[in-house]
Design a protein that fits this description.
Elements: H1 2-20, E1 53-59, H2 63-66, E2 72-73, E3 89-90, E4 92-94, E5 100-103, E6 107-110, H3 116-127, E7 138-143, E8 146-152, E9 158-162, H4 169-175, E10 188-193, E11 199-204, E12 224-227, H5 231-237, H6 241-265
Parallel strand pairs: 8-12
Antiparallel strand pairs: 1-4, 1-7, 2-3, 5-6, 8-9, 10-11, 10-12
Length: about 270
């Protein structure tokens, strides 16, 4: 009886120790102290892509001179059902599939692949001929929020709004509640859609600090991040009801064996 009890305890310890053996795979950026972050030096500038929404304002010393370039949307109704004559909100410009926006007075402007600052300079050069020589317009371009999707072994999977021009994959996973203990940190799947609408997949290793130097460190519009389950989760998901009953039986048998050993001792 004692040999049976010891065998069960030994088997349980082997399972526990085996699970702990993979704990090193849980740590992020393990080699951070031994790599150079020089390749990541410099500020990240997001590039404008088709389907992006841009908020554009033009300011001049003469309000009337800049007004044709600042279209507004009046979305409120008066008491008689007519459109209100209030100031309204600035219209957003959607980048079409060919990378163009249709800007007032000027017409179509190709902005795909440009940064926000490059777009500001381009629009300024386009509207300058329509203004007096003394006018020095200020053009401000902002990218509206977009969405990415985080699924798999994270604590809060779902669609995440990105309200800034720069969000890293680590920030995105933090927004999703971080990876669960069952998530594979060294094999994150990132599915990205390029400017031509074609989808590409890359694999990222969060255990390796070199991810900070990766061109995929910052997320882009419509990115999908998938965290795969590790072997422990995969095996657990395959356990059927009969296996669960066996575990229950073993637990009861262990308790009975322990009780018998104590009785025999007495």
């Amino acid at each position: 009886m004692k040999k049976l009890l010891l065998s069960i305890i030994a088997a349980a310890m082997i399972i526990v120790l085996g699970s702990c053996g993979s704990s090193k795979n849980v740590t992020y950026l393990q080699n951070l102290d031994s790599i150079s972050l020089a390749p990541s030096r410099g500020l990240y500038d997001a590039k404008i892509m088709p389907k992006d929404q841009l908020m554009i304002t033009v300011s001049t010393t003469d309000y009337e001179a800049s007004r044709p370039f600042n279209l507004t949307v009046h979305n409120s109704l008066g008491s008689a059902g007519s459109i209100s004559s209030g100031g309204g909100s600035l219209q957003q410009y959607v980048v079409d599939n060919s990378g163009f926006i249709n800007f007032p007075v000027v017409g179509k402007i190709h902005v795909e692949g440009l940064t926000v600052h490059e777009t500001e300079d381009l629009i300024k050069s386009k509207i300058q001929p329509y203004l007096a020589r003394t006018e020095n317009p200020i053009v401000t371009v902002r990218m509206a929020s977009y969405r990415i999707t985080v699924i798999g072994e994270v604590n809060r999977p779902g669609v995440i709004p990105v309200t800034t021009e720069r969000m890293s994959i680590l920030e995105a996973l933090a927004q999703a509640g971080d990876l669960s203990i069952y998530g594979l940190r060294d094999n994150i799947a990132l599915i990205r859609t390029d400017a031509a609408g074609e989808k590409h997949q890359v694999r990222l290793n969060l255990n390796d600090a070199n991810i900070i130097n990766s061109p995929y460190y910052y997320v882009q519009q419509d990115d999908v991040i998938y965290v795969e389950p590790n072997n422990v989760k995969a095996k657990n998901s395959s356990i059927g009801s009969s296996t669960t009953l066996w575990f229950s039986f073993i637990g009861i048998a262990t308790s009975v064996a322990s009780l018998l050993v104590n009785i025999l001792k007495d």
